[in-house]
Amino acid sequence: MKLKYKARTKTGELQSGLIEAADKEAALNTLSSHDLYVISIDEIKESHWLDFITNFFGRVKSKDLMVLTRQFAALLGAKVPLADALRTLQRQTKNQILRETMGEVANDVDAGLSLSQALDRQNNVFSLFYVNMVRSAEITGRMEETISFLADYLEKETIIVNKVRNALIYPVFVIVLFFIVAIVMIIFVLPVIKPIFEESGVQLPFLTRVLLDSGDFLSTWWWAILVVVLGFGISIREYLKTPEGKIVYGETVLKLPLVSNLLKKLYLSRFAESISVLVRSGIPIAQAIEITGHTVGSIVYREALHQAAEDVRTGQLFSQALAKNEILFPPIVTQMVAIGEETGKIEELLKRISEFFGREVEELVGNLVELIQPIIMLFIGVAVALLFASILKPIYDLASTF
């Protein structure tokens, strides 16, 4: 198979490229034999629409992974041996994909691999951050504490996602229902009463004429519209897979009026918490920054953190590296990091940054949840009023002529 890798030499130089190997483990061994420290390695697969469907329905929900991690922490806290804990988790979980994954992890551990190596082989389920946290716990011997932290981390992420999702379910349902009703009326109802208006000579309002013309156009060219929409959607999807598309999408999302402030604070909370835990676990600051770049959830922040890691390797202070990008890292972040560097308590200051922005995120999510529904319902109310006015007004005018 062909794999794409990123690695560092003994001198800290970043290398990336492609390697042919029988499997990922063989590729890791080959790269390690060349004195390379592997940061990431992924198999290159040809995209296929069947793969997209399989991944969508076969994915592991964050809630299932959070529950499994919480159970894992409880088993380790009860001093259950690692191999037995993994087998127990395999039997306990109800998610079929996760059950098979844990079976493979348990088999790999029984075969002599470390837990982090076994998890890394299941990178479609366990993120790079998750794997590196386990790897650091193996070095420091703080496995139970680390797994408990991961469970808390996943739980907070799940709570935020569920809040937003639950707030959007009803408005999205109403919007979809409105568009279905509007399309039915435009295509099937208005064309039936159109001849009556034409014979009576009633002057139709502008909005009614627009709806009638739209109905005619949709009835005649619906297939062309479908082809254009599908083609446009596929083109956008493929473009967003490219490096340029990912960057454009990441930058665009961070500029959206209502979302940008929330996302920036969410990414800052993740960034600070991840680096704090990694540094506390004994991972060098530059490596911790680089790992965090892969787990923060934004390609824009990833590129900024990778550059910051390079700057730190060249001898700059972490706070100085962050200060170069004030748009992504506000002064409060760089100042607190600088204080942490001066006092030697950078992981503690980063933890405070994470807690501060975590509270900000919770407050913003709560406000958005309260605002989303009334705003959307107001929009739907206005749209429904215009739709029915465009139909009832000419009918009223027609009735008044008799």
Automatic annotation (TrEMBL):
Transmembrane domains' residue ranges: 168-193, 221-240, 375-396
Cellular compartment(s): Cell inner membrane
The keyword Metal-binding appears for this protein: no
State the superkingdom: Bacteria
Q: How does it sit in the membrane?
A: Multi-pass membrane protein
Show the GO cellular component annotation of the record: plasma membrane
State the UniProt keywords alphabetically.
Cell inner membrane, Cell membrane, Membrane, Transmembrane, Transmembrane helix
Give every Type II secretion system protein GspF domain span.
69-191, 271-392
Q: Which PANTHER family does its entry note?
A: GENERAL SECRETION PATHWAY PROTEIN (PTHR30012), TYPE II SECRETION SYSTEM PROTEIN F-RELATED (PTHR30012:SF0)
Family, per the entry? Answer: Belongs to the GSP F family.
This protein is called Type II secretion system protein GspF domain-containing protein
Q: Which organism is it from?
A: Candidatus Colwellbacteria bacterium RIFCSPLOWO2_02_FULL_44_20b
